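Inverse folding, one chain.
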């Protein structure tokens, strides 16, 4: 994979994903090295000044009024990192920590933090060696940055803490430094603070979620198209001129995707006359899918806007301003990220909810338009997909609980100096669970719709047929009951890998 250059400018969302998820190597640009060296000299000048400067010659947070003598400042920075590495709970996923570390390097490279260039270089060496500090689930309030997660990462640079190699082996911080090819860092003025004061964990998880949701929102349209066919519905409501009457851009894309996937459907053509006479309209979960999926797309567009702004930011406190002054600020507050992370948790929960409703229609002979109860081979003897819908329902219920916003909560900390916090890290953690949940819910809908289409017979649309063909490589078609969990997991893997989207797009044309 191509090397990602980290400089004084902004990384892209794709840069973050490629490094975090696919281990793309990074390099620090010469411009960034020069900029860091230049602003570091300003910090060193201020360190010699008898006037206290926050973060350089003072304590931190509620202890900022204490002036720290020069001979104690290295200990000050080391103590800061050690004391803030206070996380607890399960280990955070490797890709999240890689994203967090890349984004901290990116902020260091802006030159606004005042660290020595070699500090950023050591971070880059750790990342390129595939070594990941061990970070725990709980510890960040999303204000003053993701303090505890970043401190656990910074501790490894000091030769302390714990880390994992690329193959998952747990090692000490000292071993991590050695494997990455550098001696543990001795921190100087301001450097400990610069390593832990950022929104990098929230932002990294937002970038990863955006990458996932881009794929899943297209998968939703494919699942809708398959359910439309499996339920003998009508595609007339997806016509472009009807979408233009309500000109939300995401809605038009969603409707166009459904039409592409079902193009050439003999199933829908054969059902059209009976539908016009006896059905008239599909249920909201089918008919209104473009309005829901379109709203998700438009919400995602706003999240991308926020993420790109944050990727262009230099988040630290204090910061070395462009005119050379070192000054306190509030840019570490995670509110902008927390809001969109919560918003994405809401819309992913709603996508899962409407998907589960479509699945449920297949299982009820009063609503599935001529199919067996629960799509069972022999209803009564067989239960078909009865409990697959239970699994969906359990996941959707969990996702709805995760949709409760974290950003409306705040618990004061640091002796009331930090009296309003964003809880953005918590918003990011529950969004990750919702992304996983949506993946699983959509997999069950696709598995169920494919079974219904096979049981109904007839020629499906070009996109639908391609998806079923891919699915049937690992999941058998309808028949007597069998161990269902492996079928669900195989389908989950196809959704998560993007194989479902690729199959449909290769057959039906590019999908938005």
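Residues assigned per position:
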């Amino acid at each position: 994979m191509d090397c990602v250059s980290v400089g004084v400018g902004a990384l892209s969302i794709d840069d973050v994903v490629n490094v975090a998820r696919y281990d793309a190597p990074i390099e620090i640009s010469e411009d960034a090295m020069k900029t860091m060296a230049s602003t570091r000299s300003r910090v060193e000048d201020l360190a010699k000044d008898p006037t206290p400067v926050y973060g350089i010659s003072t304590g931190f947070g509620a202890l900022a009024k204490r002036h720290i003598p020069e001979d104690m400042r290295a200990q000050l920075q080391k103590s800061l990192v050690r004391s803030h590495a206070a996380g607890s709970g399960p280990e955070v996923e490797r890709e999240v920590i890689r994203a967090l570390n890349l984004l901290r390097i990116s902020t260091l490279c802006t030159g606004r933090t005042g660290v020595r260039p070699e500090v950023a270089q050591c971070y880059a060496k750790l990342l390129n060696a595939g070594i990941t500090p061990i970070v725990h689930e709980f510890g960040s309030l999303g204000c003053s940055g993701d303090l505890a997660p970043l401190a656990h990462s910074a501790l490894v640079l000091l030769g302390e803490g714990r880390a994992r190699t690329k193959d998952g082996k747990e090692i000490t911080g000292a071993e991590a430094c050695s494997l990455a090819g550098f001696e543990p860092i001795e921190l100087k003025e301001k450097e400990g603070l610069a390593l832990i004061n950022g929104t990098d964990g929230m932002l990294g998880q937002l970038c990863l979620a955006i990458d996932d949701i881009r794929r899943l929102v297209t998968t939703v349209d494919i699942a809708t198209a398959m359910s439309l066919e499996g339920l003998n519905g009508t595609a007339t409501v997806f016509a472009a001129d009807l979408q233009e009457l309500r000109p939300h851009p995401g809605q038009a894309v969603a409707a166009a995707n459904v039409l592409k996937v079902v193009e050439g459907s003999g199933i829908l053509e054969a059902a059209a006359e009976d539908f016009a006479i006896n059905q008239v309209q599909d249920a909201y979960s089918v008919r209104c899918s473009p309005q829901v999926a379109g709203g998700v797309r438009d919400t995602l567009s706003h999240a991308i806007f926020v993420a790109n702004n944050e990727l262009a930011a230099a988040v630290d406190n204090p910061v070395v301003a462009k005119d050379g002054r070192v000054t306190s600020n509030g840019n570490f507050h995670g509110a902008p990220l927390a809001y969109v992370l919560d918003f994405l948790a809401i819309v992913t929960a709603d996508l899962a909810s409407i998907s589960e409703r479509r699945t449920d229609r297949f299982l009820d002979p009063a609503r599935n338009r001529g199919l067996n109860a629960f799509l069972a081979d022999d209803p009564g003897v067989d239960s078909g997909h009865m409990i697959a819908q239970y699994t969906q329902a359990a996941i959707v219920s969990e996702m709805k609980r995760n949709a409760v916003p974290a950003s409306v909560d705040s618990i004061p900390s640091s002796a009331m100096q930090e009296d309003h916090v964003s809880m953005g890290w918590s918003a990011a953690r529950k969004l990750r669970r919702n992304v996983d949940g949506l993946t699983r819910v959509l997999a069950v809908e696709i598995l169920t719709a494919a079974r219904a289409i096979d049981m109904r017979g007839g020629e499906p649309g070009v996109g639908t047929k391609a998806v079923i063909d891919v699915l049937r490589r690992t999941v058998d078609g309808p028949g007597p009951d069998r161990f269902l969990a492996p079928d669900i997991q195989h389908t989950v893997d196809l959704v998560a890998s993007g194989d479902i989207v690729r199959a449909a797009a290769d057959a039906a044309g590019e999908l938005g």
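The longest helix spans residues 424-456. The chain has a mean pLDDT of 94.
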